[in-house]
Amino acid sequence: MTFIVGLTGGIGSGKSAAATLFEEFGAAVVDTDAIAHELTAPGGTAIAPIRAAFGDEVVAPNGALDRAAMRRKVFTDAQAKGRLEAILHPMIRAEADRRSAAARAPYVVLVVPLLVESGGYRSRVQRIAVVDCPEAVQVARVMSRSGLSAEEARAIMAAQVGREARLAVADDVIDNGGELAALRPQIEALHRRYLEMAAVS
Ligand code: ATP
Question: What are the structural domains, with CATH classification, of the chain?
Answer without folding.
Answer: 1-27+107-201 (3.40.50.300), 34-104 (no CATH)
